[in-house]
Write a structure and sequence with these properties.
The structure is a homotetramer. Chain A has two domains: about 160 residues, Rossmann fold (3-Layer(aba) Sandwich); about 160 residues, Dihydrodipicolinate Reductase, domain 2. Helix content of chain A is about 30%, strand content about 25%. Chain A starts with a strand and ends in a 9-residue tail after the last helix. In chain A, strand 5, helix 3 and strand 6 form a beta-alpha-beta unit. Chain A is globular. With about 325 residues, chain A is an alpha/beta fold. In chain A, the strands form two sheets. Chain A has an eight-stranded mixed beta sheet, with helices on both faces.
């Protein structure tokens, strides 16, 4: 049994990690810690776990006192907190899957620009592997440090990768994304207040969301040249679910059949990508690790419109982290799901 | 034009007061204040008012500096804050409609027991009029100080009053109430966090809710003897709306027709009570000042089951306050609605 | 591997049965059928199953042509349809778990009274076992025909059983229940129309709901004397979840500790009952087979108030059916969950 | 008092028309009719109206027997039904505001292409005035027949008009729109079933929605050259509200200040357009006739991103119809709101 530790247990990513790991046949949750006032059974924090998993969460008191019994550490911490801890865990011989954004951007300057803080572990950036299994399975296998992708980038990169990789589309991509409110975190605020969100819909951070450099980095790597993403995230009045609608311009004419074939070929052996012949809906991926994708040629305007849907807490966070773990330890990618 | 002031502008009661008063032909909102960092246009606090009502809210700095230009003050303040201010406003010759609980209980000892604080203006309790217009229209007319009823008590007292007044039912009433989340206030908390409420339902404060003594006081007054209320409030995952289901035991047999006739007679000239021949639903009273009531004889068990529905922000708070104002100034009760 | 058949695949009970059975290590779904125009992959009916379970559902053409390869048949059919088919399946040597109400009432006259139709298989009523495992585990073990309980009765019987069994409460129980809208079925109607339910709340079938005789039958059996249930079901604007608030009168004084101890003892070895020291919420049982129960002495009024919560599709329907199957075949009760 | 008739009373547009008209000081609802089995009080169809407006709706039996007492007819009928009736009403000397799509497209061939039916009153198309008051106030004034705009086109045309009119942007506009479910109508279906929409989000009719030719017609008229709209509508799990996010490419560089100034100037005397300096949200326009607009220069990508929000039943349908009526009869545009 692989012994895993989870750091940052009070948020939704921590919750969802436990939900998935409890079904996994090859691992044992050996340690959990978070910002707590005193050691607390996880079932007191999340009532769902009562009678299923009553293990106690520890008060987190620093990287040096956490995870000694663990082979693998999941970091479900806020951005900027993770980067301070990763070096210590690596030095102690642990493998790390970091669900924060801290090791996603290859470029420390870009991190400083978008996150308004200097990267304090920049020397680890070259080693960190961007944990999108559909693109980087081989590198994930041997990684010590996984930068688990953002939720929006997961929908967008998976949605566009086949077109980008084959050089079929122009360099500018318009992305209109919608996320459930669990994406805004578990901390109460005016934004997450029920009355402010129910029977309401809005957008936020248009053009300035921090997932933009992550998308552009990965799509540009795929393209071999710079890709620009115009990105508008919206806040859906639902708990879980994310859907992105992407608008791409073909360089030269293609038929719907050609596009479909390209996607089929690109994702033929990827267990968590489902290519649909109708528009995806978030309910169909709820609490699953699937990314549902629909690619559509709008003949009238010669645009390609792609719609992709995930559960932002599963394929958009904790499910993808477990998928990465499965690959790191040579297990079937779908184990535990 | 009557000049009114609203104190406590950042909560839902304040918001709803403005919504109603803007349609009222005989009043002018002369002053507004709340806990703000600096003077702020109301349309910056609530986007709904942009271009309709851009008046500035003042920073509240004490009762002595507020409301000088006003004839009537609406207090939309938390419990315990109101009672400190009311004497000063009355002394300055203002009439006051207090939306908090501070002047609802006639008995200062009961207030201390349920609100865990001594009443600091107990000498005003005899004068304060419980502002339920369907029962106390005459006293409201000449009142200086109105204690605007709680939302739950409004549904329960209106729902049971005809049976209680006619002495038809036993002294024990079971009340199972459900409230939309605006009832929990505008302050962000774990309770009001969207993800915690959406696709969820629960009860709270069963048997210990502070509206219990208010219901028992008013129903006992109506009965002329002590009435006991067993009360369970629940939290509905909707914004606005409140529905109470009440279970009463008949002292002696009655027919459905007799019950219906008693309600018809009791509420015959009450413009905001609607007696239905089907079960009410909250959507039908949304953003209205109506209380919809259905009285039903369960012949099989000889119980009377009453269902009443209101909008907790309108008839359950601000609408009722405006209805009281209309009566105080001799206007048609329905003016502004 | 046990071969099971599912009849009635297009409703939510059928959907949920598949969700649970796909995780079950000892069974194989051998046949599925429903009211379809032509054989249809289940993943075309419910997109969730795509790539996980693409088996074809057959067009149902009568009991004689269905389930020949199966050991056990789940009937997820409407009331009144089931009773016509059960005899044929039993004659063919199948065991049957019927999710409809057709075999729940022991008394054919009572069935006729509440369901407005003569029971056409009344001779099987004595043999049918009421499939509430917490009460009838031994009889379930050897049953040929299980009458899977209704969702409301599951919450009410489990919530009251310890008090009733010990003869602690009076014969009249008031039950105020709230159900998610999946309980109203998958057929579009004005009742299930989104706009009619969202931001809305109401009650229905107060005093006349068909689950009343089922509750009274089982509680009276437990009590050894007639129990009367006053029952008000409400329609919650959520998908899944059911919560019942029950009001009982103690025959003689008890302490909270005594009540808690009675519940602890009654449910000590029941894996799917969780006794809470706080009020349950439906989110904590969502997509689980748990029934969360809180028992509370209201000292002020000498009432016992019990709140119980389940997922109406899991413990309230398909989960309970699988729990029954586990017992019938000698497996651990929790297998597949 | 102007006497108005409403034809098609059972849908949401009819409902909302009544809600607004009941507040209007200069009109009287003289006749109402719809597809009913027998004459029915409107308060039996929509419980909201009980005690406020108990007028009876007639069974519709043909244009010749409806509206004789009326000056103005609102047609809240399905597409294709309206066009058969309009000629008769005009011949009888009535003015008509048609809320369907039948008279919005100037080109009968385009109607046939997108609505799959020949236009049977094509001779009236030249006379019909597209009832978007912010563009066509003068023509509306004297119109006999108003084609009330679609909800999506209202958000898109108002959102883009200043940029298009000034020739600042390229001919291709990407529009990503989201609509509340009341937009799907009052008829129950799988699409509008609560369980299928709650905690779910999806798109529909991408690239083929019938509002596309309407948007292109109006934007092209404004531009003086052909504009192409790439359009993706989505289905929001809320009752009322519509938000469109529009992506436009500048022909030459502009500053944010220049863009803001252009919008300020364009809409300076339009009472129902509110230009915001933050992203609109649907809650702020709920049950109002406002269109909230935010125009934003994304400097990084040189795109203009516009977000506009309306209530799809008010400014997107019935509110706009009443605004048109106000203009037709020389009243203040905002009367009744």
């Amino acid at each position: 049994m692989l012994k895993v530790g989870i750091l940052g247990i009070t948020g939704y990513a921590g919750y969802e990690l436990i939900q998935i790991l409890l079904k996994h046949p090859c691992i044992q949750i050996a340690e959990m810690a978070g910002r707590l006032e005193k050691p607390t059974p996880i079932s007191s924090i999340f009532g769902q776990f009562k009678k299923r998993f009553d293990m106690e969460c520890q008060v987190f008191e620093g990287a040096s006192s956490f995870g000694r019994s663990c082979d693998l550490i999941f970091l479900a911490l806020p951005h900027k907190v993770s980067m301070a801890m990763v070096p210590e865990f690596l030095k102690a011989g642990k493998r790390v899957i970091d669900l924060s954004a801290d090791f996603r951007l290859k470029n420390a300057a870009s991190y400083a620009e978008w996150y308004h803080e200097e990267h304090t572990s920049a020397s680890l950036l070259p080693e960190a592997v961007y944990g999108l299994p559909e693109l980087y399975q081989d590198r994930i296998k041997n990684a010590r440090l996984i930068a688990n992708p953002g939720c929006y980038p997961t929908t967008v990169i998976l949605g566009c990768a086949p077109l980008i990789k084959h050089g079929l589309v122009k360099h500018e991509i318009i992305v209109d994304s919608k996320s459930g409110i669990s994406g805004a975190g578990a901390t109460p605020s005016a934004v997450t207040h029920f009355v402010n969100r129910y029977e309401n819909f809005t957008a936020y951070n248009i053009g300035v969301h921090r997932h933009i450099p992550e998308m552009e980095q990965e799509l540009s790597l795929l393209a071999g040249s710079a890709i620009t993403v115009i990105f508008s995230p919206h806040l859906l009045p639902i708990n879980r679910g994310m859907l992105s609608t992407m608008y791409l311009s073909l360089k030269s004419a293609k038929t719907q059949d050609e596009l479909s074939a390209i996607y089929q070929e690109f994702y033929q052996d990827k267990p968590f990508v489902r290519l649909l012949d109708k528009i995806p809906q978030t309910a169909d991926v709820r609490e699953t690790n699937y990314c549902d994708i629909w690619v559509n040629l709008d003949k009238r305007t010669n645009k390609v419109i792609v719609v992709s849907a995930i559960d932002n807490l599963t394929k958009g966070a904790s499910g993808q982290a477990v998928q990465n773990m499965n690959i790191m330890y040579g297990w079937d990618e779908t184990l535990g799901f």
